[in-house]
Amino acid sequence: MTLMKKRTIILIPYPAQGHVTPMLRLASLLSNLGLRPVVITPEFIHRRISPQINPEDGIRCLSITDGLDAETPPDFFSIERAMEENMPPILEALLRKMIDEEEEEGGGIACLVADLLASWAVDVARRCGVAAAGFWPAMHATYRLIAAIPHLIRTGVISESGCPRNPSAPICLSSNEPILTPNDLPWLIGSSSARISRFKFWTRTLQRAKTLRWLLTNTFPDECQSRKMTRCSNAQQVLEIGSLIMQALEISTGSFWENDLTCLDWLDKQTMGSVMYVSFGSWVSPIGEAKVKTLALSLQALRRPFIWVLGPTWRRGLPDGYVKSVAGHGRIVSWAPQLEVLQHPSVGCYLTHCGWNSTMEAIQCKKPLLCYPIAGDQFLNCAYIVNTWRIGVKIEGFGIEEVEDGIIKVTEDEQVSWRIERLYENLYGKEGSSKAMANLSTFIQDLGK
């Protein structure tokens, strides 16, 4: 059966904002290339994003039962249980029904693309006889770190349960990659039992990923200046398409929260390059009331214009009357249209948790970064931002001197601006975009074989 008859392609994102957004953009790209993308999410995600998707975008959104308690906000472990126990039989029944419907119409399912953090869907695709591809929504270096788990165990860097054997020993997978500390490993979050559970999640993900023929990555060629560092089986094609995903902006990215658009009007009134944008993303746990208070007092004392994305659960750390006291030079919003904020000429720098989407958007908008990683892959992203690409600085705390020093370093160093410009060209220039399109075309052509 030719690819033109098997035009439907299933996409399964991990159910978090930073994963759903790039998957929807990938769906938009595939739709523009003549495929019929169907994005399948658990109910609690579907309720948030489906009303925002324009039917004219050519994307169909379906939901599956997740079995989660609607009254309790889901966390990593409740989502993992739902993905491993509740969702597979529901997806399998839906997928078999779709296969039957497609065959009646003379078509078929071309492929199922699963976010690797939703690797449970790979097994479902295999049982249904559907080709599967992986989607890695972060930089490829993070995948290489996960793929190196067997090597790290074999060389004694970590134990069989993922615990560092020497907490002070540096980790370096190759001479071209930044040196990490054991605390930078993405599964080392929370209590000892939580860390072990997260490590099991990653090892299970790795085993499923090894079976895939294609791995689409939300990154760019030569992110680490060396193609020799790719640690994948010879049978697996790693196809970087990040620059295309970041430029697929004509589609609503399905924000889980309502954007406060008034901050854009406020930005219009500020001096060019004067504003610091502060956001720690949509998924990580709050940084703690004490740190919120310290940062709040530093921003107040600096009197530099700022926009701070601070959800209701984070605001308990703010001093009494704080929002009113900084109204002359600062705005605090629950959620912001981040790309539009970063594109604004009044924004001069970005204090970030170093999430990958945020990092890519900062490069796209040519904004230098103050880095305060909190969890997961953010530490590795930070290492590349600070040590490899040198387009930002890492701060260890939110004291006034450290924040002010960081701002000065990233906004007054002309070399930082020059390096961001170079990186931007690598990602979004003609060559980078052409490579990404060639990679995506290779994937689509392979589906037809």
TrEMBL record:
Family annotation (Gene3D superfamilies): Glycogen Phosphorylase B
Swiss-Prot/TrEMBL keywords: Glycosyltransferase, Transferase
Domain of life where this protein originates: Eukaryota
InterPro entries for this protein: UDP_glucos_trans, UDP_glycos_trans_CS
Magnesium recorded as keyword: no
The EC number(s) this enzyme carries: 2.4.1.-
UniProt GO MF annotations: quercetin 3-O-glucosyltransferase activity; quercetin 7-O-glucosyltransferase activity
PANTHER family: GLUCOSYL/GLUCURONOSYL TRANSFERASES (PTHR11926), GLYCOSYLTRANSFERASE (PTHR11926:SF1402)
Family the entry assigns: Belongs to the UDP-glycosyltransferase family.
Name the record gives this protein: Glycosyltransferase
Organism, scientific name: Sesamum indicum (Oriental sesame)
Native organism taxonomy: Eukaryota, Viridiplantae, Streptophyta, Embryophyta, Tracheophyta
